[in-house]
Design goal:
Elements: E1 2-9, E2 13-20, H1 28-40, E3 46-52, H2 58-71, H3 83-94, E4 101-104, H4 108-116, E5 125-126, H5 129-134
C-alpha cells in the first residue's frame, strides 16, 4: 500500500489522502498514522481518495472510523479491542454523517463494502473531487 497526501485550498484548507493498494490487517495502521500526521500539521478537513483501493478488509473500515474520530479530536478505539472497536463504529453511525472526513471515488467492490457496513450513513461519498472539496 502507498499513501500520498496533497493539500488544496477550497472554502477551507483540505488535505487529500490518496491510498493505493489494498487496505487490510497488514497495513491499516499506516492509514491512521498518516491521518495523525496530517492532524498534527493542522488538518481539520480530510478527503480520502479510494479510487486505487481494490480491496478493503474490516480493518480498513476500522482505519477509516479511527481517522474520523481523530479529526473530530477524539481518541480512536484500540484496534486490539476486537469487537469493542467494531461496536464503536456502530454507535457513531447512529449519530449520522460526520463532516471532517469524506471519501472520494471508491471502486465498486469497495463501495459495496462501505455500504454493507453502513459507512455511507457515516461518511459522505463523492465521485467528483471538486464537489468534495467544496463540501467542506
Amino acid at each position: 500500500m502507498h499513501i500520498s497526501t496533497d493539500e488544496v485550498q477550497g472554502k477551507e484548507h483540505v488535505a487529500i489522502m490518496r491510498i493505493q493498494g489494498d487496505v487490510d490487517a497488514s497495513n491499516f495502521q499506516r492509514v491512521i498514522t498518516r491521518a495523525k500526521q496530517a492532524q498534527g500539521r493542522g488538518t481539520r478537513a480530510l478527503l480520502i481518495d479510494l479510487s486505487e483501493v481494490s480491496h478493503m478488509a474490516s480493518s480498513g473500515l476500522l482505519a477509516l472510523h479511527s481517522v474520523a474520530l481523530l479529526l473530530r479530536g477524539e481518541a480512536p478505539p484500540d484496534p486490539e479491542a476486537g469487537w469493542g472497536a467494531l461496536r464503536s463504529i456502530g454507535r457513531d453511525q447512529e449519530a449520522g454523517l460526520q463532516h471532517q472526513v469524506k471519501l472520494l471515488n471508491p471502486q465498486p467492490h469497495v463501495k459495496r463494502v462501505l455500504e454493507m457496513a453502513g459507512f455511507d450513513r457515516f461518511f459522505q461519498i463523492f465521485t467528483d473531487q471538486e464537489a468534495a472539496i467544496a463540501s467542506f
